[in-house]
Amino acid sequence: MPLQNRVTPFGEIVALPERGSLMGNRGILHDDARRLVRSWQVRRWIACRTAFRGRRRRVMQPHAYTELFFLDEATAFSAGHRPCAECRHAEYQRFKAAWAVGVGEPGGAKSMDAVLHADRLEGRGRGAHQRKRCYGEQLAALPEGTFISLDGSAWLLWRGQLLEWTAAGYIARRSLPPPASRVVVLTPRALVAVLRAGYPLQVHPSADEVA
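Predicted structure:
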């Protein structure tokens, strides 16, 4: 049975068989039976490589951080994660440079994480009392790589079209609504600003293959 450690663009942590191309970390979220007991523990939400310097881990081992998995970086951004400064150092440096342009000069990782934490969640606590913070925006104001919600599904704005997200990849295209349309945005505001500033987002190969 799949473990509950796969993250959707809505920020939900679900049990799905697909592993994903990036791994994430929000702290220790599971108990000794590998059951999820909280949705986050620390404000440092990062997106990591799935392989780095030969390190090996048993997934969701007791008293260690919970390994989360994302289809791609676009999904990780939508859920509120930034690049890891260690295993994705080059991406982290590009992220910081884009943050300086789009958001303001970062005071360091803790400063960026504080902004992101305010952007990505509503309510208080670490469990069911919190929901993903979404907001309305004109489509014309959104850069490529942003996720929006339409008809209950997550759609990626990519190369002048919308792509429907699934855990296995993008499965459908649809034309963009009129530029003045207001849409529900899933990607946090600060990360939208980073994308607008030119951060080169990693997107699953299916984005170029879907009919």
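Summary: The two ends are 31 Å apart (CA to CA).
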